[in-house]
Amino acid sequence: MHILAISGSLRAASSNTALLRAAAVLAPVGVVISLSTSLAELPYFQPGNYDEPGAPAVAAFREQVRRADAVLFCTPEYVFSMPGVLKNALEWLVPSGELYHKPVAVWSASPSTTGADQAHAGLTAMLRVMEAAVNEGAALQVGQVSGKVNAQGEITDKELAESLRTAVAALAQAGNTTNSAYQATQGIQT
Ligand SMILES: Cc1cc2nc3c(=O)[nH]c(=O)nc-3n(C[C@H](O)[C@H](O)[C@H](O)COP(=O)(O)O)c2cc1C
Known about the structure:
Blueprint: E1 2-7, H1 15-26, E2 32-35, H2 55-67, E3 70-75, H3 84-96, E4 103-109, H4 117-129, E5 133-134, E6 140-142, H5 158-186
Parallel strand pairs: 1-2, 1-3, 3-4, 4-5, 4-6
Helix pairs in contact: 1-5
This protein binds flavin mononucleotide (FMN).
Flavin mononucleotide binds at residues 9, 11, 14-16, 76-80, 110-112, 114, 116.
């Protein structure tokens, strides 16, 4: 079971990326979580423009998403929205459809008490339009994140660590169910 983790923050000291790294450590046996390549490598989305210099980065990103059993997003909020770099990345997946029926979970984190709720709602809505299988049971909004992650990117809040663990397990379960259903349609026995 492989979960691709995509952070909406480009900051080296990002709390959102720290949550995804912590999730990789807390994941149950048999669940591997890896971070996607930086979204900053992707060119700006233009419909139909697949011959531009950034095309290899787009192809590599699409392949990472295609190969994942499930995708875990964690996003900050800028001016009440998800960061443009994350929306841009998702726009590249619209025509190629890698997220179609893919189990996904939306996490968001912010130093404010809101837990980046507007970005969370916007990202969830976009993923629904793309017909990803949004897993509500694996969703998380983390408010006041600055007091819950230390300078080394470690989770210092026990309740948060437990929430991450539960959410990852829910997403992994969704990924396993989807895999089993797919294998049944293909006549594959495990
Ligand atoms: C230009 C700008 C706009 C922001 N707007 C919001 C916002 O609307 N809501 C919010 O909760 N935080 C907002 N923030 C704070 C971000 O949530 C904060 O920078 C956060 O740490 C970014 O996540 P990261 O640690 O993963 O990089 C804003 C920050 C900046 C620089």
